[in-house]
Amino acid sequence: MLLLVTILAAISWMFSKEALGEFPPFLFICARFLMAGLLLSVPGWRGITRLSGQQWRAASGVGLIFGAAMSIWIMGLLTTSHLGEGSFITTLSVVMVPLVGWLIFRDRISRSNWVALPLAFIGLALLSLQHGFRPDKSQILFFIAALLLSLTFILNSRAAAHVPSLSLSAIQLSIVGLVALVLSSIFEDWPAVWTPTMWLWILLSITVGTAVRFFIQTYAQSMTSSNNAAVIMILEPVWTSIIAAMWFKEGMVFTQLLGCCCIFFALVANRWPAIVSWLRKSYFAK
């Protein structure tokens, strides 16, 4: 299920980039997540009404952090000229999950995590070489979004252990939409007419890229730990780069490719004990 999530996540990058050709960024996030949240609320309504106050606070907290992350991410997507690079930077959230968990919750951090972090920052440095070691605006925005997404990932795994997956997904996605709605109403002018292509990209983003994807992710995370789930999530930037190369004819210069490789190796190193454990159970046990 998490492998499917990585593919859906990669495809949603394409939908989002296409949508930004016609949508104001915060309005797009608002429409995408609020409608997706409402869509999941229909089958999940009975479960939502039965949640306790503590469960509501847990789900709402995830939604607020997630809303901040997605608002910053969409601004990075608006300003970037390279989806593959942006995806690798954003997926650094996986590397930072153990570090953020240690800083905030005093979760145990392994030796492999400390190996991964220098590799990740070397990769970031290589990506900024194109600008004379000065990262551009989109790279900074993607990195901030990655920090917030790492916290979202941890909080989501903790909340998923106590809140039904469908209810949790519906609440957090709706709150992301509400956060973006506030920002859009303050900073953006809304289009007077929605064109057929606007409806196409928003509907694909709502269903395939958001409602289905995050429900599957939340359900899958409820059956495993955040660290184990993160093993599979390292594939998202690889799928994104491949699909973007086919969709938008993107390419990478040598420093970009090397930087992305360092980030990918950081993702692998970060999850190395879990990868070895999975290989032993899946193959060597046979």
How would you describe what is shown here?
By secondary structure, the chain is an all-alpha fold. It has one domain. Helix content is 81%, strand content 0%. The chain contains 13 helices and no strands. α1 (2-19) packs antiparallel against α9 (196-221). It is globular.
Molecular shape: globular
Count the beta strands. 0
Number of helices: 13
H/E series: HHHHHHHHHHHHH
Mean pLDDT: 84
What class do helices, strands and sheet pairing give? mainly alpha
Total domains: 1
Write the layout of secondary structure elements.
Blueprint: H1 2-19, H2 25-49, H3 53-79, H4 83-90, H5 92-105, H6 111-127, H7 137-160, H8 165-187, H9 196-221, H10 226-233, H11 236-247, H12 254-270, H13 272-284
Helix pairs in contact: 1-9, 1-11, 2-8, 2-9, 3-7, 3-8, 4-7, 4-11, 5-6, 5-7, 6-12, 8-9
Which properties best describe this structure?
mainly alpha; 286 residues; 0% strand; globular
Brief synopsis:
By secondary structure, this protein is mostly helical.
